[in-house]
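#struct-pred

JT: dropping the chains for the assembly here, can someone run the whole complex?
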Amino acid sequence: MSSGLVDETDRASSSLRDSVSTAMLVALAYFIGAELAFFIGTLSDKIFAPFWPPNIVLFCVFLLVPMRRWWIYTLITFPAHVVAELGVGMNLPQLLVAFATNVAVAGLNAGAVRLFADGRPWLGDPRKALIFVAATALVCPAVVALGGAFVPILGGATGNFSDFWAQWYASNALGSVTLAPVVLTWLCEPWPPISQVPEAKRSEALALSTALVVVCTVTFAVGPGTQGSSFLPALLYLPLPLIVWATVRFGIKGASGAIFIVTVVLIWRTLNSHNLFTGGDAESNVLAMQTFLIGLATPVLLLGAAINAIRHAEQTIRDSQERTAFAFASTHIALWEYGTAGERFWTSANCNAMLGLKPNVTLTRTSFLGAIHPQDIAAARDIIRTTASAAEPTTREFRVNLPDGETRWLLARGYAQRDKNGEITQTAGILTDVTDRKAVEFEAELQRRELSHLMRVSVMGELAGAIAHELNQPLAAILANAEAARRMLRQAPPDIDEAGAALDDIVHENKRASEVIRRMRRLLRKGDSKPEIVNLNDLIESTLKLLHSELISRHIKVDTNLGADVPIIWGDPVQLQQVLLNLAMNAMEAMSLVPPSRRVLAIASRHLNADSIEIVVRDRGHGLAPVSTKQLFEPFFTTKDHGLGLGLSICLTIVKSHGGELSLANHADGGVTAILTLPSRQIQTMAAK
Amino acid sequence: MSPLTFTVHIVDDDCGVLRAMARLLRTAGYDCRTFASPLQFLDEYDPSGPGCIVLDVAMGELDGLRLQAALRDRGVEQSVIFVTGKGDIPMSVQAMRAGAIDFLTKPVDGEALLAAIERARNDDTERRELHDERVSIEANLAKLTPREREVLTHVIAGRLNKQIASDLGTVEKTIKVHRGRMMSKMGVHSVAELVRVAERVGIAPHEKQ
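RK: done, full complex below.
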């Protein structure tokens, strides 16, 4: 704590010491400025100094140091003021009033700029520049000039108060727009390291300054009566292109530098040559020169500030774009816009890379579609088309082939931008790399398929005996027919007709056996099963055939009631059969404890309404224990002694992936009713994909 | 007895198997009647002629073992041969205990089936011969007077005429006459023959009190 306080005190005292030593320098600058003005005044009888540099020194210092330190600088510059003014023979009241007005104009200028232009850079944009000019070249000097006008009066000068006011005002105003800007922007604003400034730019600055000096030197040496004096008004414009050039190319620094050069050269040429500003008495000459310079400097400063603001805005935009591009690139997102009028794409920088296109390729509809995986062209075409027509944002996924052979999944989301008449002006959206998500989904799907296949294998295992019996029947018939045929052919005479009939039956039975095997293999099939047209009634019958022997051995009667108007749907027949098989086997299992005479497995199908098909599988068992329906479908939940608890969970997943519903409930007359609803409109929507 | 008169009843709810087995048996000269429904079989079955029954075990309406029991309840004597797609030992034991003469597994070997049928036919023939014999014995028995029948039980018990006369409270001579008539009505020539015949129809010898 105490050490912190000591530090604090130290810093305060050290900054005080700093302030004092800086103030000494400021006092020196004040003194030199005053001497410079006096020096200019003594050089010629045509003019005296058009501005008063000490005030600018004070003004700049007040702008740069904290307000609470102003008194130090005021105090220390006072001796410099006294020394300088005494040197030109000022009396005490004159000297005091002069110092008071000098400090007042500097303080007012600095205060106003600080108050209204909120912080550095003081000439950073047109608004600040306007405040700067209005405060330091218009209002403040005009007000303080009311006091400043007394200085010559106190010195015994004779003349109009208004003339003194005008002199005092103009010299301070001129200083504010010619000297202050160059101090504030050249000395107080940061410069880029010289090594970072391109050679061309440095040469340009040098050439520009030289040209300006030369042009001004020539121009400001021409006066009435000299050669070429008929061009006088035109000559005054000669430096202007160079000034504007400097301003446009170098912003506020160029503007203030150019103004400074013009000011210095003009004063110098006026002192030692005959020009436009040497025609009258010293007072009017100076006033004319001041008016000219203020008139020139003010718009140039505003222009410079505007250029700086534009540069700053550009830089901000560039920074923002860089940040955005970095963000896009690191999140694998690209932006795109597609003008409906000219078939032209605008995209964020990483878009080409995401599409696997070279950076210099212009993205058009053609090059965009060319980047897409051949199988997904339709989806890509679709996103362009539907985005332009749909009211809602649309989403499509497609693959792109990168040059290194990698295939990535992209998700495109687009929406249409409309004008106030509702006309689409352009479409826009994002591209997201969803390869990782796709990989996870694919993996999950693979595992789901694997599990689903394992469950089918396990079901087939349970049915193995029944299926063996199913196969045995045709085999038995084949064997008996074959032996019968052999006997018939060995008879004398051979019974060719009957033997032929036996062979026909063999062929028939063989087909029957193949059918059993085919049904079994279809269920045991692994890997991709593609969606196809499914007749649910056929599927139910095929399932019951698969269960035929099992049903007989379990003494279960089957009651089917299949609606004739059940429409075909689009789906995965293997998976759907797995669901039917699972429901049927659950029903069969549920009836193992009821007397054989009551064992009935009822399966009904019907076209529920335009949108859906309902399949009801009902048993006559003892019904479900009171568990929540949700629980029944949870993985690893089972009510069976040897169940895995995955059957219904897998069934539900399959049904949901077909857009359907599956529910189980106890029937009022006993037993469980499983209700499976599948959407019949599926066939259109899936076919559209 | 011609094989054609021997009828094999085949009951199997699988039409293909049914037709094939019938075809095979017909080539061996059997007369076949096929039933795809066990209930229809129970309705239409006529056990009077010579024949046997081939039953499938696993049938939806009524399985083979139950059908066998139903037949036994009706007093059907024809031999039952089981064929099954998935026979197990307990099932075959149950079937054999209930009187089946064979338990064959599908696909059935033709020779095995024909052998079983042949055995069934022999059993049937034998049973029919026994039956016929019993019928003629019982016809003879019906001709006997109560006294002659009484004498018969004494004779097959190995008793002498004198002992029988004493037991029945009469004279030896009378017994001799009864015995002669009885032997002649029964169509036997020796006591040994009489004993065998009596045994066939279950007449027990007289037991001395």
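JT: nice. The first helix of chain B runs from residue 15 to 27. Chain B has nine helices and five strands.
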